[in-house]
UniProtKB/TrEMBL annotation:
<comment type="similarity">
    <text>Belongs to the methylglyoxal synthase family.</text>
</comment>
<keyword id="KW-0456">Lyase</keyword>
<dbReference type="InterPro" id="IPR018148">
    <property type="entry name" value="Methylglyoxal_synth_AS"/>
</dbReference>
<feature type="domain" description="MGS-like">
    <location>
        <begin position="1"/>
        <end position="137"/>
    </location>
</feature>
<protein>
    <recommendedName>
        <fullName>Methylglyoxal synthase</fullName>
        <ecNumber>4.2.3.3</ecNumber>
    </recommendedName>
</protein>
<feature type="binding site">
    <location>
        <position position="89"/>
    </location>
    <ligand>
        <name>substrate</name>
    </ligand>
</feature>
<feature type="binding site">
    <location>
        <begin position="56"/>
        <end position="57"/>
    </location>
    <ligand>
        <name>substrate</name>
    </ligand>
</feature>
<feature type="active site" description="Proton donor/acceptor">
    <location>
        <position position="62"/>
    </location>
</feature>
<feature type="binding site">
    <location>
        <begin position="36"/>
        <end position="39"/>
    </location>
    <ligand>
        <name>substrate</name>
    </ligand>
</feature>
<dbReference type="InterPro" id="IPR011607">
    <property type="entry name" value="MGS-like_dom"/>
</dbReference>
<dbReference type="GO" id="GO:0008929">
    <property type="term" value="F:methylglyoxal synthase activity"/>
</dbReference>
<feature type="binding site">
    <location>
        <position position="14"/>
    </location>
    <ligand>
        <name>substrate</name>
    </ligand>
</feature>
<comment type="function">
    <text>Catalyzes the formation of methylglyoxal from dihydroxyacetone phosphate.</text>
</comment>
<dbReference type="InterPro" id="IPR036914">
    <property type="entry name" value="MGS-like_dom_sf"/>
</dbReference>
<dbReference type="InterPro" id="IPR004363">
    <property type="entry name" value="Methylgl_synth"/>
</dbReference>
<feature type="binding site">
    <location>
        <position position="10"/>
    </location>
    <ligand>
        <name>substrate</name>
    </ligand>
</feature>
<dbReference type="Pfam" id="PF02142">
    <property type="entry name" value="MGS"/>
</dbReference>
Length: 137
């Protein structure tokens, strides 16, 4: 079953995400990929795969991906963020990570976690259903 996966990386982490994506290209190729602007362009070039590009993170791309989470159309987020270099749009980053927790969305913030997530037998298991919280109560 095809999933929608978001791939995002801060400037200092883009090489790490690109290297990771190359290692897992075969898996990524089976899914719909979305990314923030610059990262999406690099991924598309390096992987030779289609990547839907949103705006750059500081220009609203993080919020566009957050909207996918809130709408229930994103299945996982791979966000290699740089904890040692705060970005000017840091509140947007925190909001994006908060939405992952609110909506029980799988999120990997570094290569080790991304490896574990994408190689999990549950990742492509069509029987696995993510539990969504019911905030209507």
């Amino acid at each position: 079953m095809q999933k929608t996966l978001a791939l995002v990386a801060h400037d200092h982490k883009k090489p790490d995400l690109i290297g990771w994506a190359k290692q897992h290209r075969a898996i990524l190729a089976r899914h719909k990929l979305v990314a923030t602007g610059t990262t999406g362009g690099l991924l598309s070039d390096e992987l030779a795969l289609p990547v839907h590009r949103f705006k750059s993170g500081p220009l609203g791309g993080d919020q566009q991906i957050g909207a996918l989470i809130a709408e229930g159309t994103l299945d996982a987020l791979f966000f290699f963020w740089d904890p040692l270099n705060p970005a000017p749009h840091d509140p947007d980053v925190k909001a994006l990570l908060r939405l992952c927790s609110v909506w029980n969305l799988p999120v990997a913030c570094n290569e080790a976690t991304a490896d574990l997530m994408i190689t999990s037998p549950l990742f492509e298991d069509s029987q696995h259903v993510r539990k969504l919280p019911d905030y209507g109560k």
